[in-house]
Every structure is written in structure tokens, then in C-alpha cells.
Design goal:
Elements (H helix, E strand, L loop, with lengths): L4 H10 L3 E3 L10 E4 L3 H4 E4 L1 H8 L16 H8 E3 L10 E4 L2 E4 L4 E11 L7 E7 L1 H4 L3 E2 L6 E2 L4 E10 L5 E4 L3 E9 L43
Antiparallel strand pairs: 1-7, 2-13, 3-4, 3-7, 5-6, 6-12, 7-11, 8-10, 8-13, 9-11
Amino acid sequence: MYLSNRDIKWAIDQGILVVTPPPQSFDETSIDLHLDSIEKGARVWDTQKYLDEIRPQGIKTPDLSLGAFEYQKFAAKYLIEIPEKSEGEPKVSKRGHQVIVRPGGFVLWTTKEWVGTPEGNPQFISFVNAKSTKARTGLVVHLSAPTIHAGWEGNITLEIVNFGPFNFILEEGDAIAQLTVAKITSTPDLALKEKSSQTIHQTDPSGAGNKPTEEPKTKRGRKQKA
């Protein structure tokens, strides 16, 4: 069962759905997600560094063995801040307070919102979706599975790709995606999970980060309802 805007607002007010900062406006069944600051949230892959390290092995292209791939270790080493525009036209570059994503460009960028459900007795799952009018220009904002699982919370990392013919200009605060929320039939047995999430409580695209030391104001002093 998907939540209406009234139910989403109620769940946030009760602290059983986490959205911080809380949304300022609602669509009928969703809320907007916005880009975080460039310095905190936007990253690109340093393929040149990767190539320089694997070339002694005789490899000429940045091949990546995903079967033996450990994301957090790899990201800590090869994810970098977006460089200022240099000679030529890189696929992704920074221009002051803007990020330019050219056709074929790929950038990871976290949402300003911290989103999810409490680990104790989670009642909802959420879904990240593109905004259709922006998608029609060739913008893809979330390549991976869109589900925000019960008991997970953090800044959502969006995988942004330009499949269109235009250069996209992105800035902090842009409404780039939307979130819908659904109620699950019962609280999941988290002990059945094969392994813990690599990205829970993430604050940047590497998957690193910590749960905020201060809980959202909407959660303080309120009794959670079943």
C-alpha cells in the first residue's frame, strides 16, 4: 500500500519515517529529493589513477572485476571530488557552484535529505524515482535498484548519467528525484539478512559516514505508533 501525501507527512511527524530536513512541499503521493552540496556530495571516478596502477600488469583499459570487487575500499581509493574545468571537455567538470555533465558523463551525488526508517520496528520501504520531465531530456538519476529497504537510513547516493544530447547544468538544491513510500505487511526479521548493508548511515557516495548524533526534532518526545 502506497502512502498518500497526508500519510507521508503523518509518518514523518511520528518519527516512523525519517526525512531530514523535512519536506517543504508534497505531491499527491511523493516528496522531492534534492542535491546536496558539491563539496560534500558530488564525486567522480579517477580512472586515470586506476589505469596508472594496473598498467604494470599489462592492462591497457580500466577493466574492473566486479566479482571480487569491494565497493567501500575501491571507492575510498578512486572516488574524487569533481575537478574544475581544464583543457578539453571532460565528461563531468565543475564551474563555480555548478556541475556540468556532458553527454556520456557519469557522476555520483548524494541527496540533501537523510532518508529511511528506524532500525527498530521499521514499517515502510521507499522507492527513488526519476522526475519524468527531466528524464525526457536524457537524464537518468538512479541506475541501481530503487528500493530503500526497511531499517536503512542515510543520504541516498544517486547515479547520474547523461544519455541525452545536451550539457546538463546541476547545482546544490536542485530537485532531481522523488521518493514514494509503501507500508510493508509486517516488520521484517533482520536476522535473516545474509549480510549487513555496506551503505547504511552513509553521508557520501563512498558509502562512508555515521548516523547523525542528533535525532530529527520530529522524533523527540513522540511515542511511535504501530
